[in-house]
Write a structure and sequence with these properties.
single chain; 806 residues; alpha+beta; FAS1 domain; 3 domains; seven-stranded mixed sheet; 26 helices
């Protein structure tokens, strides 16, 4: 061999180069034998994990346990592991607690669990146990658990009364499922970064103390023992693999809650899912030929915020499984049963399975959080419905008042609670739409179709969501009332129809407006309505007034309500209160079969279902009020006897109509030109003045009734600036098409006053409003109901004076 190499070298290299190469070859070959011996193990290399532990002398029981499993060879061989090794004292304690006298008495499958769960993939020194390596970057203080070598394989579970083979998998698979369990590691870096205290650990492990570095219930007493195939941390407790949340639910104390998760409608489960896995079955038939496997079901969950049996984190938080987990709150069996009985009674059903999937999902989501909730943060945490877990937030009950037991799971945490977690979907006024049998079809379907992202969240605001001042009053729109209006639901096309509407009208637009006409938003303790009895002290024939969430004003007295359509039809909506203690308002049912109408329904001809025009209501107002007719005459003289273009059907208006006396006084003060005689038109300059006068009386954006309340809704306002339709242009003031506004205020007697809002620039008062004008409190003159509007008589005119710079 050497001669051959030397000959080749002579042909290709110089003599000096050749000699050097040959000497190198001889040196290399001198280290080899004819049998090509392998390198010996370097003397400086640490022993493997097994040998390091054996040399310590206080891990004999752990090593004996490992020797009885397949993991002994791994501890002796290659790889890269972090081992949390329980010392002999820890094992003695474990044996005593489980009534064993020696390691040999412990079943091999239990020993396998202990050893495999103590072994974490990859090497983590103490300084890195609280960190996560994410995309090559260490994220410090963010890790709460590490992936162990243990995973649960095939197991048996009863499905529809039959014991079946099951694996935890969301889909049929073609390989063995390995859902590795995670070992929680509690570090000072994680606790500091998440503002946690020792109590947060000790609530879960009451027999252990937080030391700054704990692995499950064990404290790390000897750190960073290096080995060839990893690193070792000594712990003072033996840890069995933690159950995941799904496994914890199999305990007797969780039976009632688990039964809701196992709800079936017909032959189908609503939340748990068992898929017969054809591929999975073949995989496990080959893996376990002696188990007589004929079928394997893949178990998962559906219609929930997360999968209870999934070891990997798939929640809403960004990051890895090492950084996150889930939280499940499980009420006592008794509290779940009480709640179920109450719910069935309200919904008038015999069993929870008769409720909608939506209702049951809301209940379960109230007890689920897609992140770890720590005891010290409990009062500020919200569930998947965005409701406070304690029912009120920081002002509510503390952790110990709500939770009876805390358990750390392999994929999160579980809290046993005294009572159910209160949900806005069963305690607010909206709950009647969800549960009441009279609303279960048309009304509930319409709410979920049209209002899922806006008015359902609004109508469920309460102390549960941190909105303690919100108060709603709702008149229940039953399915029968909607059917009487002409509505039906096309389930195939997910569309509402109304047989009474003309082809040009939109049935779904009418449905949305009718439903919103039934809801009134108020402020608790300030403007809330306890009933619809009325307000005799307001001088409006005993009527009270409120604006619904669509923007239409209604009037009421003696628990009888009228919208504009009812007033024009001469009908009333009679109501009585529903007997339930809602946490954000009151609900009334209709007793006489008449809906709150924004348009006439019974009027003949083309008027039926046609929304009246604001201009027509102003005309009717002038006809009904002989001392308030000049305003309409001025308006018709400049706009030709038809609706001005600035009046738009979809806009809310508060319209101010000065009395004839007020207008005559303004004419006498040269604030307005006199009305030309006959049908003569205004002069150009006078016309501009009249147009300004008229346009300043149309306040946009909000309908403000004279309701006797101390604040203006929405928003609990003592005063509110509303834009007018008038745009001001004045070259001397350097103002060009500026939007003007009128400030609406409450007086001492809670009546309304109006004044043009001044316009200033730095210290320069450019435009100064006239003195405030007051609402005229008299039936038929103010609080005159219009379409998306209200008309008030006032005792003066809205106007202003300009102040050019000298």
């Amino acid at each position: 061999m050497i001669h051959t190499l030397f000959g080749l070298c002579k042909k290709r290299f110089s003599r000096l180069e050749t000699c050097g190469l040959v000497m190198l070859m001889l040196l290399l070959l001198a280290g080899c034998t004819d049998t090509e011996e392998q390198y010996e193990r370097p003397s400086w290399l640490e022993p493997p994990i097994y040998d390091v532990l054996a040399g310590k002398g206080n891990f004999s029981m752990y090593l004996h346990a490992a020797d009885k499993t397949l993991y002994s060879s791994i501890l002796k061989g290659a790889g890269n592991y972090t081992v949390f090794a329980p010392n002999d004292d820890a094992f003695r304690k474990f044996l005593s607690e489980h009534n064993y006298t020696s390691v040999d008495e412990v079943p091999v499958d239990v020993l396998t669990q202990i050893v495999a769960y103590s072994m974490v993939f990859n090497r983590f020194e103490t300084a890195r146990l609280g960190d996560v390596l994410n995309s090559g970057i260490w994220e410090t203080g963010t890790s709460i658990k590490k992936r162990s070598s243990y995973y649960k394989t095939l197991y048996k579970e009863t499905i529809d009364g039959v014991e079946q083979w099951v694996v935890d998998s969301p889909a049929d698979v073609t390989a063995v499922v390995t859902p590795y369990k995670f070992l929680p590691i509690f570090t000072d870096s994680y606790f500091t970064g998440n503002l946690l205290t020792a109590t947060d650990y000790e609530k879960f492990f009451p027999d252990a103390a937080y030391s700054g570095l704990n692995a499950a219930a064990g404290s790390v007493s000897n750190k960073d023992m290096y080995a060839e195939n990893g690193i070792i941390h000594e712990v003072d407790a033996v840890s069995l693999p933690l159950d995941n949340l799904d496994e914890m639910l199999r305990r007797d104390e969780h039976e009632s809650f688990r039964k809701i998760l196992e709800t079936k409608v017909g032959s189908s489960y609503l939340f748990v899912s068992y898929l017969l896995g054809e591929n999975t079955t073949e995989v496990y038939k080959k893996l376990y030929p002696d188990r007589n496997i004929s079928a394997v079901y893949c178990k998962t969950y559906q219609n929930l915020p997360y999968l209870l049996n999934n070891e990997d984190y798939k929640g809403t938080e960004s990051g890895t499984t090492e950084q996150h987990g889930y939280t499940l709150l499980v009420p006592s069996n008794e509290s779940v049963q009480r709640f179920a009985e109450m719910l069935c009674e309200r919904a008038e059903v015999g069993d929870l399975s008769e409720l909608s999937l939506t209702a049951l999902t809301y209940f379960l989501k109230a007890h689920m959080v897609p992140r770890i909730v720590w005891p010290s943060h409990f009062a500020s945490e919200q569930n998947s419905n965005e409701e406070y877990l304690n029912g009120e937030g920081k002002d509510g009950p503390d952790f110990d008042a709500c939770v009876t037991k805390s358990s750390f799971a392999s994929n999160g945490v579980l809290y046993d609670t005294k009572e159910i977690v209160q949900s806005k979907y069963f305690t607010t006024v909206y709950s009647e739409i969800l549960l009441n049998k009279d609303c279960r079809n048309l009304a509930n379907i319409a709410y979920e179709k049209f209002f899922i992202n806006d008015w359902i969240p609004e109508m469920t605001k309460s102390k549960l969501t941190g909105d303690k001042e919100v108060d709603y009053i709702m008149v229940l729109p039953s399915d029968e009332l909607l059917k009487a209006d002409g509505f039906s639901y096309d389930e195939v096309n997910n569309k509402f129809l109304n047989e009474n509407l003309t082809a040009s009208a939109d049935a779904e637009d009418r449905m949305k407006r009718l439903l919103r006409s039934c809801v009134f938003k108020r402020t608790k303790g300030l403007t809330e309505l306890d009933d619809f009895a009325g307000f005799p002290q307001l001088s409006y024939d005993g009527y009270g007034y409120a604006v619904n969430i669509y923007g239409d004003m209604i009037r009421f007295r003696d628990n009888k309500l009228q919208g504009l359509g009812n007033i024009l039809d001469g009908t009333e909506v009679e109501v009585e209160e529903v007997d339930f203690d809602y946490i954000n308002g009151h609900v009334f049912r209709i007793t006489n079969g008449t809906m709150i109408e924004y348009s006439p329904r019974n009027s003949g001809g083309t008027a039926a279902f046609t929304v009246p025009k604001l201009y027509d209501r102003i005309t009717m107002y002038a006809q009904e009020n002989s001392d308030c007719r000049l305003f309409k005459q001025y308006m018709d003289r400049v706009y030709g006897g038809s609706s001005p273009s600035f009046i738009r059907e979809s806009t809310n208006y508060t319209v101010l109509i000065p009395t004839d006396e007020a207008i005559q006084n303004a004419v006498g003060s040269d604030l307005l030109p006199a009305l030309p005689s006959g049908s003569d038109a205004f002069e150009s300059e006078d016309k501009s003045m009249v147009e300004r006068f008229i346009q300043l009386c149309f306040l946009t954006g909000t309908v403000v009734p004279d309701d006797g309340m101390p604040y203006i809704e929405p928003g609990k306002n003592e005063s509110l600036a509303l834009n007018t339709v008038y745009k001001l242009t004045d070259s001397e003031l350097d103002l060009w098409s500026v939007t003007t506004a009128v400030v609406v205020s409450k007086q001492a007697d809670n009546s309304l006053t109006f004044r043009f809002r001044d316009i200033t620039k730095n210290d320069w008062l450019q435009v100064e409003g006239y003195a405030p004008v007051n609402v005229v409190r008299e039936s038929g003159k103010s609080n005159y109901v219009g379409p998306l509007s209200v008309i008030h008589a006032v005792d003066g005119i809205i106007g202003f004076t300009t102040h050019p710079k000298e």
